[in-house]
Design goal:
Number of helices: 5
CATH topology: Transcription Regulator spoIIAA
Shape: globular
GO molecular function: anti-sigma factor antagonist activity
CATH architecture: 2-Layer Sandwich
Strand order of the largest sheet: 1-2-3-4-5
CATH class: Alpha Beta
Domain STAS: 15-116
Number of domains: 1
Organism: Candidatus Sulfomarinibacter kjeldsenii
Helix content: 40-55%
Mean pLDDT: 92
Strand content: 15-25%
Oligomer: single chain
Protein name: STAS domain-containing protein
Distance between the termini: 47 Å
Order of helices and strands: EEHEHEHHEH
InterPro entries: STAS_dom, STAS_dom_sf
C-alpha cells in the first residue's frame, strides 16, 4: 500500500488562534508531525487550534490517539480544538472515537474561522 506522506503547514493566525493544515496519511509519523506543529503553536500561546484535514483521506488508530493527546493538552490549558474539511470516513472515525464530543467540526476553513472568531468575541 502506498500511503501519501504527510504534509504539514502551521500558522499563528491571531493572538491565541493557530492553524495546522495537514494532508496525507495520518499514522504514527503523520500524527507526530501534527503534534509537533501543535506543540510549537501552543508554545507561542495558542489556546485555540484548528486542524484543516483537506487532502487527508485516511487516519489510523495511532493517528487518532495522537490527536486525542493534543485535545487533552489543549483542554488542560482551557483551550479548544477544531477540525475542518473531513472526509465522511474520517468524520465517522472521529464520531466513533469520541473526538467530536470535545472538539468542534466544521465543513471548511472559512466556516471554522468565522465560528471561532465569533466565540472569541463573546
Amino acid at each position: 500500500m502506498n500511503e501519501e506522506r504527510i504534509k504539514i503547514s502551521q500558522d499563528l493566525l491571531s493572538d491565541g488562534f493557530g492553524l495546522i493544515a495537514a494532508s496525507g496519511y495520518i499514522n504514527n509519523e503523520g500524527g507526530q508531525a501534527i503534534a509537533d506543529a501543535a506543540n510549537k503553536l501552543m508554545d507561542q500561546g495558542c489556546k485555540t487550534l484548528l486542524i484543516d484535514l483537506d487532502g487527508t483521506r485516511i487516519i489510523n488508530s495511532i493517528g487518532v490517539s495522537i490527536l486525542l493527546e493534543i485535545l487533552e493538552k489543549l483542554m488542560d490549558e482551557k483551550g479548544q480544538l477544531a477540525f475542518c474539511n473531513l472526509t465522511p470516513t474520517i468524520s465517522k472515525t472521529f464520531e466513533i472515537m469520541g473526538l467530536v464530543q470535545y472538539a468542534s467540526v466544521y465543513s471548511d476553513r472559512e466556516a471554522a474561522q468565522s465560528a471561532i472568531a465569533g466565540d472569541a468575541s463573546v
